[in-house]
Design a protein that fits this description.
Elements lengths: L1 H26 L22 E8 L3 H17 L9 E8 L13 H5 L6 E4 L8 E3 L5 H5 L10 E10 L2 E10 L4 E14 L13 E7 L9 E6 L3 E9 L15 E8 L9 E6 L8 E10 L5 E2 L4 E10 L10 E8 L2 E10 L9 E9 L9 E9 L11 E8 L4 E2 L3 E3 L2 E3 L3 E6 L1 E2 L11 E8 L10 E8 L7 E7 L7 E10 L9 E3 L5 E4 L4 E2 L6 E3 L4 E4 L4 E2 L9 E3 L5 E5 L4 E4 L12 E10 L11 E9 L5 E2 L5 E4 L3 E5 L4 E4 L5 E2 L5 E7 L5 E6 L2 E6 L7 E9 L4 E11 L6 E2 L6 E5 L4 E4 L4 E2 L8 E6 L5 E3 L5 E4 L5 E10 L4 E11 L2 E3 L1 E2 L7 E6 L7 E7 L6 E12 L5 E9 L8 E5 L13 E12 L4 E4 L3 E5 L11 H24 L5 H18 L8 H5 L4 H32 L18 H6 L4 H4 L35 H15 L1
Parallel strand pairs: 1-2, 14-20, 23-31, 33-40, 42-50, 52-59, 60-68, 61-62
Antiparallel strand pairs: 1-3, 3-4, 5-6, 6-10, 7-8, 7-9, 7-11, 11-12, 13-15, 15-18, 16-17, 16-19, 19-20, 21-25, 22-24, 24-28, 26-29, 27-28, 29-30, 29-31, 32-35, 34-38, 36-39, 37-38, 39-40, 41-44, 43-48, 44-45, 46-49, 47-48, 49-50, 51-54, 53-57, 55-58, 56-57, 58-59, 62-63, 63-66, 64-65, 64-67, ...
Helix pairs in contact: 1-8, 5-6
Length: 1127
């Protein structure tokens, strides 16, 4: 045994060492060396000029690549290039608008003879390396020499300069070798940037696009010249600048490009190309004028005719060569389209050095300029230049604003007619009439005069400090004209003129007569407020100060009259009127506000109009009598009620007419015109009223009285009932909530419960159950039949309606299948008390059941039990035990045996489950257990030493009986009996333990059977050690093979893999362990505490157990389909 243990330890150590070596080689990765990314460089010059010809089309996709790469190469190595200036090319390009350019008589495109587009040829190659097709990069062709021939023996330069509308072109060829050579000058005019673009190219323009040839005098071919060593030959052409178009954001002259190459023969066949150049290469001659400025000592940005302005301009050499060919500078101004010279021509210096500048000035009297001009255009230009390449910068001009006199616009007058003493608001505007002044720099003069007179005056006019409506078409300045009370009535003329910042005044803008300002007489005004108070039936004098006034006359100078009977007279001396509001026997005093219309004469002429008039108001009060305001009519529904506080509607005065608190009055009800309809009451000032009953209709007039103890006043209030239809009603009573059994029919008399106080005809009744068809109403019998099939809370809505309205009532229905059966582990709780005995490991439990006093009289009882695996929650076979109800007085004892799933008794963590109790009482009601009851099995059965003598004897007898039965089964079995033999060993061990108790009385045969236990245990221990050794060796060999083969790949997760070893998943799949794994025989322990449970194939059994007629094998294959159909 010790040797076996030592060997096992050595194998384990060897296995762990191999694993650590294998893991270290897997985890340590050797880093990969990344390749260096090459640095992209610009093309390197071959040391001489290179010439290429490109043929492409607007529709060609690869042509875009070729065009871009040629232009990029030109940018670094062409004219003005960043690296060199020795590469140029010409493009023969098909336009989307004009097609192919005309290249006769040279026919260069046919000469190149492209088989496809793009085609790019270097050095007039007819084939081979320098005859290329397809979009690509051309740096390598350029760097390798570009197929040029003896290029270092020749040089070529191009100078072009503007001459009016033409471009003068000089091409100079030089031979540096020995002897003489006759060469042909390949020369063409091109657009440096075409204004057209490639299709679908994101605005990509072609470059160096051919426009026309520069040919010999006969126009039949290229010009030929003979060169001798060291002597240059220049050939010239003059071509209209319009040959090219503007493009690339520059003018046509700046987009004009001359491209040339020297060839060792004419154009009729392929020749050697000796040199090349274009007009962008080499030093340039460019002189121009810049920085023209115009200044005026009297104004910074404008002039008035007669001002003297100063002009200044700078001549600058912007080329690469000193300018020495003479010329001059002229200042000018424009008269229409003509340029008129100012002060003659000023000569340029003998040499205008590179980057050199020279400043020229002159003065100009603006008196000769047009008086109508808004601006004057001044300029400076170079004249008499020679060899200047660009004429676009030889002429510069600028504009100078003419400050013209402003124009006054018609003023806005508001209002045009005013009374004497009022003010007129005048908004004046002006047109600056130039681009110099604004309303902010413009002021105004305003004057008025009575119409028909000659004297103008600015008296009464003020304002104009701020600009109003700034930024809008109505911006201007506001002035105020204040009239006086002694001003003559009639029309007044207005005139306005504008004055700008340099004091130039506009003509007067005159507005005459009624279009200007009309001043009228100020009418007397009459004000009712504040309203004076007078006593009823007493003459009273009231001062009119503050009530009548005139802007032009004193109050005492006015005459006040009225035709009202309450007007007694006007006293001009005291400035008072006298009034009397008399008592009338029929209407009493005119209490409250009363008006008197009066007319006022101020002495003016009112021949063509009425005298001014207005209304004076007086608050007439009574001497002491209470007074009511009108009381609002009150309306209530049938059966309604209401109330109204009366004090807000009544008031009182004392003997002097002073108002006193109305709460000091005593209120009372004098009469009720219709007591059969309304009940009325008065408590304090609160009038309450209610209808006699819910169905009465009509109205009543109630007379009320207010008394101050001396005088009284009566008032009436009308009370009305709004007739309301009463919908049919229903008294549900006990029907409001029902408990009904599913599938049972019930009948209720509904019609007798419905009544309508407004109508004797039966109401129309509609029954609406929550379960369709569960309730029906018979219109003829008035009965409602109810039968529900769906369990739970249901409703029946009953609607009773007449012609106008309806009421709905809801009956709550609890539909049950069986009444709840209450069982509990606690005594005297519910209907049944349940306890469990002998719920130990390896034992058969016994249930004890007793009915409590709360239980109905049952005629049948059945209990259903299951054993469940506590670890997985899977419940196994269910067994039913009908109970003899005649034994209900003493209770029942049930032995819970599950021989098919627990043949050797309960296992650890089993749950014994009382799953259901089905019962029927003496009324036929059925009951069902609502919630199961569980007992968890975790304890061993008590040992023999803990048993009393009787229990020990029964325990030994049970063990001996079980051993005999198991031996008989083993002898009779023809299959594998390993499991039964293991169980036999356990039983015999338990028997041996029991028989060791001195109180035991055991038979000798069974006790002798214990002698083999130690031998069996030793054999089992050896088997376990051998199996462990084999498993460790297999693992070690697997690691060694993995180490030899390199890093072991980690297994990838496969979501479709079945959880063969996942006990939880197996339980979730319904105990489908047989699907996920092949059962492996477990190693046999020396003395296992409890045999492993037999695997239960298939899904969990339902609460009712295995369906009738099924076998477990059928359940394993088809059980899940059965469960799915039950859902």
């Amino acid at each position: 045994m010790n040797h076996m243990r030592t060997l096992a330890l050595l194998l384990v150590a060897l296995m762990m060492g191999s694993l650590s070596v294998g893991l270290s080689s897997t985890l340590v990765d050797v880093p990969e060396e990344l390749e260096s990314t090459p640095v992209v460089m610009s093309a390197t010059s071959p040391g001489h000029p290179v010439f290429a010809e490109y043929v492409g089309a607007y529709w060609c996709g690869p042509c875009q690549t070729s065009s871009t790469n040629l232009h990029n190469l030109y940018g670094t190595n062409g004219g003005g290039g960043t690296t060199s200036e020795d590469f140029t090319y010409i493009s023969f390009w098909e336009s989307a608008s004009t097609g192919w350019p005309s290249d006769a008589p040279i026919n260069r495109r046919a000469h190149i003879n492209p088989s496809g587009y793009p085609t790019t040829v270097f050095g007039d190659a007819s084939s081979g390396q320098y005859y290329t097709s397809g979009g690509q990069n051309y740096d390598s062709f350029y760097q390798s020499g570009g197929n040029m021939q003896n290029a270092n023996d020749y040089s070529l330069s191009i100078a072009q300069s503007e001459n009016g509308n033409n471009m003068d072109i000089d091409i100079t060829a030089t031979y540096l070798g020995s002897g003489s050579k006759t060469v042909h000058i390949y020369a063409a005019v091109a657009e440096e940037t075409s204004p057209e673009v490639y299709s679908n190219s994101n605005n990509l323009h072609p470059h160096n696009v051919f426009q026309r040839w520069l040919l010999n005098g006969a126009g039949s071919g290229f010009e030929s010249v003979t060169l001798t060593s060291g002597n240059s030959v220049t050939t010239s052409w003059s071509v209209p600048i319009s040959t090219v178009r503007a493009g690339g954001g520059v003018s046509a002259s700046e987009n004009f490009l001359t491209v040339a190459a020297l060839m060792d023969g004419d154009h009729t066949t392929h020749r050697g190309v000796l040199s090349a150049a274009d007009s962008n290469m080499g030093p340039k001659m460019d002189i121009g004028v810049t920085g023209l400025s115009v200044s005026n000592d009297d104004a910074s940005d404008s002039y008035i005719r007669g001002d003297t302005v100063d002009l200044e301009v700078t001549v600058r050499n912007m080329g690469d060569l000193d300018y020495v060919d003479g010329g001059g500078v002229e200042f000018y101004y424009r008269n229409g389209v003509n340029k008129v010279t100012i002060g003659g021509t000023q000569s340029l210096p003998a040499t205008v050095a590179t980057t050199g500048t020279h400043t020229y000035t002159t003065s100009f009297d603006t008196s000769v300029l047009s008086s109508n001009a808004w601006k004057a255009t001044f300029g400076a230009r170079l004249t008499g230049l020679s060899g200047d390449m660009s004429g676009s910068n030889n002429d510069v001009s600028t504009q100078f604003d003419h400050d013209r006199p402003p124009i006054a616009l018609t003023p806005q007058i508001s209002p045009t007619s005013v009374e004497r003493g009022d003010e007129v608001l005048i908004t004046v505007r002006a047109d600056a009439n130039d681009e110099v002044d604004t309303i902010s720099s413009t002021t105004f003069e305003l004057e008025t005069r009575p119409s028909g007179t000659a004297t103008w005056s600015s008296n009464g006019i003020s304002g104009g400090e701020d600009v109003v409506f700034a930024g809008s078409p109505y911006e201007g300045r506001e002035y105020t004209f204040a009239t006086t009370t002694d001003m003559e009535a009639g029309t007044h003329d207005l005139r306005v003129r504008a004055i700008d910042a340099r004091s130039q005044a506009s003509d007067w803008k005159v507005v005459l007569g009624s279009d200007a300002i009309t001043v009228t007489n100020a009418l007397p005004t009459i004000w009712a407020e504040p309203v004076p108070t007078v006593m009823c039936d007493e003459p009273t004098k009231i001062s009119m100060v503050g009530h009548i006034q005139d802007r032009e006359s004193a109050l005492s100078e006015l005459s006040v009259t009225s035709t009202s009977p309450a007007f007694l007279g006007w006293d001009a001396t005291t400035q008072e009127i006298e009034v009397l509001f008399a008592f009338d026997d029929l209407r009493g005093c005119p209490i409250g506000q009363n008006g008197i219309e009066v007319t006022v004469n101020d002495g003016e002429d009112y021949t063509n109009s009425d005298l001014p008039y207005g209304t004076l108001l007086f608050n007439v009060i009574e001497n002491g009598q209470p007074r009511w305001d009108g009381l609002p009519t009150r309306t209530v529904d049938e059966g309604g009620e209401g109330n109204l506080a009366l004090f807000p509607y009544v008031f009182d005065t004392d003997a002097d007419g002073t108002e006193v608190d109305s709460e000091s009055l005593t209120l009372s009800i004098v009469s009720n015109s219709n007591p059969e309809v309304f009940n009325v009451g008065l408590e304090g000032d609160l009038l309450s009223y209610s209808t006699v009953d819910d169905d009465v209709n009509g109205q009543a007039t109630v007379t009320l009285r207010a008394s101050d103890g001396v005088q009284t006043a009566d008032q009436t209030i009308v009370l009305k009932i709004a007739p309301v239809n009463d919908a049919p009603r229903m008294d549900l009573g006990d029907l409001a909530s029902l408990d009904l059994k599913r599938g049972k029919t019930y009948v209720y008399d509904i019609e007798s419960l419905v009544y309508d106080i407004d109508d004797d005809d039966p109401a129309f009744i509609v029954v609406t159950p929550s379960e369709s068809g569960a309730a029906r109403f018979d219109l003829f019998t008035g009965l409602m039949t109810v039968e529900f099939e769906e369990l739970g809370t249901q409703t029946i809505t009953i609607t009773a309606q007449d012609k106008y309205d309806s009421n709905s009532y809801t009956i709550m229905v609890n539909v049950y299948d069986s009444k709840p059966f209450s069982a509990s582990k606690d005594a005297d709780t519910g209907y049944m008390t349940v306890s469990l005995d002998n719920a130990y490991l390896g034992e058969v439990a016994t249930a004890n059941l007793f009915l409590t006093e709360n239980a109905p009289t049952f005629t049948s009882l059945t209990t259903m039990w299951q054993v469940c695996e506590g670890d997985t929650g899977v419940c196994l076979n269910q067994v039913s035990y009908p109970l003899d109800v005649t034994a209900s007085e003493r209770g029942w004892t049930v032995e819970l045996a599950w021989d098919d799933v627990r043949p050797y008794g309960l296992q650890y963590n089993d749950d014994v489950k009382l799953g259901n109790v089905l019962a029927t009482d003496d009324t036929g009601e059925e009951y069902k257990l609502m919630a199961p009851i569980y007992w968890r099995v975790t304890e061993e059965a008590p040992g023999p030493s803990e048993m009393d003598d009787e229990t020990l004897a029964e325990h030994i007898a049970d063990l001996e009986s079980s051993i005999e039965d198991l031996k008989a089964e083993i002898d009779a079995s023809e299959g594998d009996t390993t499991e039964m033999e293991d169980q036999l060993a356990l039983l015999e061990a338990d028997l041996a333990t029991a028989c060791d108790d001195p109180r035991a009385d055991c038979s000798s045969d069974n006790v002798e059977g214990n002698g083999d236990l130690d031998t069996s245990a030793g054999v089992n221990t050896d088997v376990i050690i051998i199996i462990l050794g084999v498993l460790i060796l297999a693992a070690l060999l697997g690691v060694l093979f993995t180490r030899r083969g390199g890093s072991m790949e980690q297994p990838k997760w496969d979501e479709s893999a079945l959880p063969a070893s996942d006990a939880v998943a197996n339980s979730m799949y319904g105990g489908a362990q047989d699907i996920f794994q092949q059962p492996m025989a477990p190693p046999m322990p020396a003395m296992p505490p409890m045999p492993a449970p037999v695997a239960h194939a298939g899904p969990p059994l339902p609460a009712t157990g295995l369906p009738e007629g099924w076998t477990m094998e059928q359940w394993a294959y088809y059980g899940q389909q059965y469960l799915d159909r039950q859902q």
